[in-house]
Amino acid sequence: MTETKTFDVxxxxxxxxxxxxxxxxxxxxxxDNGATSQKPQVVIDAVANYYSTINSNVHRGVHHLSQxxxxxxxxxxxxxxxxxxxxKREEIIFTKGTTDGINLIASGLGKGWLKAGGEIIxxxxxxxxxxxxxxxxxxxxxxxxxxxPMLENGELDLDQYVSLLNEKTKLVAVNHISNALGxxxxxxxxxxxxxxxxAMVLLDGAQAVPHMKIDVEALDVDFYVFSGHKxxxxxxxxxxxxxxxxxxxxxxxxxxxxxxxxVSFEKTTYAGLPHKFEAGTPNIEACIGLGTAVDxxxxxxxxxxxxxxxxxxxxxxxxxxxxxxxxxxxxxxxxASVISFLLGDIHxxxxxxxxxxxxxxxxxxxxxxxxxxDFYSIPGTVRASFAFYNTKExxxxxxxxxxxxxxxxx
Length: 410
Ligand code: PMP
Prior knowledge:
The chain has 14 helices and 17 strands. It is α/β, with parallel strands linked by helices and 410 residues long. It folds into two domains: 9-30 and 301-409, Aspartate Aminotransferase, domain 1 (Alpha-Beta Complex), CATH 3.90.1150.10; 45-298, Aspartate Aminotransferase, domain 2 (3-Layer(aba) Sandwich). The strands form five sheets. Strands 4-10-9-8-7-5-6 form a seven-stranded mixed beta sheet, with helices on both faces. 4'-deoxy-4'-aminopyridoxal-5'-phosphate is lined by residues 35, 97-99, 127, 129-130, 175, 179, 204, 206-207, 227, 368.
């Protein structure tokens, strides 16, 4: 008999100690999950247990603790490999996070892969961390950056994308889900079109991994990057998945211990994958904690998480629609549980400060996506981004809070 899982948000909330807190005397309502997610007790325990039982440097010790720490870290790599369906464990590189993963690839491609005359395509929807590394690369390599424009509803203009692709295109780097608007991009289509044009694809999955099951093999994506801290894991760790054949060819990012096979002043040779890209002592406890986070979300079920968050998105959108002066920023058909909005001409920052006094944590500002804000000619938005531990009651609290905001500031 197959076991049917059920989703019990009350039980889930008990597993996140921080959610019991009061902020400014009110129950904390945490709607800033797009920036970073909260951590379940099992992840906190995994990090603490590492320090209290097996703290030791990895990969280089013959002693007992070092072997346990190495085993735990490598077990985490296996969990992540399974979680995103990467064909090989060597294709999972531990990084510091999404930004670090993108910089790793940009740095590698800059060493001879991309030359003057070549082109890189990013989109108008990118986080600054998927814009600036490519601009820097273009500056010193002579490569040209092209931008897929966006439409009013926050979707990408795919017709324009098709017309940007040509034989000079070497790489397409886009996000899977927009952090500012919640747009879920049609990444499979984007990848297939890029491949048809002979270009590689990097997906910034920072906002996708917390909400959906990722299958890098089915996507046939060349590079996929994400951060541990948005996936209910610790900060300071992230993952770069890359196709083995490409990672083999790509030069190392940083030099140092761990990433070598042998060193002499005459000639140094590099370690094989994944260690070639993991110079120095890694963030061991965070790597281990991320493996625990992956186990944790799988225990709940990514499908159940995704479905529940869609309910929150629908409910939140309906409830916020009751404000006459509500303006939703980003209304794509396919959307993750992110609602960006403006209430009349109230400045997002002012709304955020009042909501904070009521214990409600939202993000305000440009969300590291200034080009999107420029597109809408706005300084920023209020962004409520939901995780699976949020509730409809919390959304009601935000709505009540916004009524106060409107009363005080209109
Ligand atoms: N890309 C996207 C879409 C993001 O949302 C973020 C984080 N807000 C990043 C990249 C950068 O992630 P990190 O700061 O963890 O490197």
